[in-house]
Amino acid sequence: xxxxxxxxxxxxxxxxxxxxxxxEEFNENLKDNLYKLWNRMTSGSYFPPPVRTVFIPKKQGGExxxxxxxxxxxxxxxVVKDYLEPSLEIIFHKSSFGYRPVKSAHDxxxxxxxxxxxxxxxxxxxxxGFFDNINHAIMLELLQKHTxxx
Length: 150
Known about the structure:
By secondary structure, this protein is mainly alpha-helical. The protein contains seven helices and two strands; from the N terminus they run αααββαααα.
């Protein structure tokens, strides 16, 4: 799973994280880097490093922060996503479109169009800072409820 996630990260490219290690530099010691990541993840001793923040311009003016994880953390995140997604995907509401596999903004617009024909009202939910503010104890409790993970 670590190697499969590594392949996806290398296909996507991207900038170096806070450790300033590029994908090319990660590749210089690939076997050891992947083993170290696998070992930490399987032993439960993996802790993600801080995320590098860069500010990118917004269309309407101003800037927004963008977090850039390290190469190894992007690989670790991919392992967790690929492992948990099949179990959790089946419990999402059919009208949920954010961060979902095989769902697009076009699918969301089609769903909105269909709903507007059936309903006289619309609810748009976008929780600013959701991942910064979620209660992690509740999130872990729900994760245990909906997966085999303890």
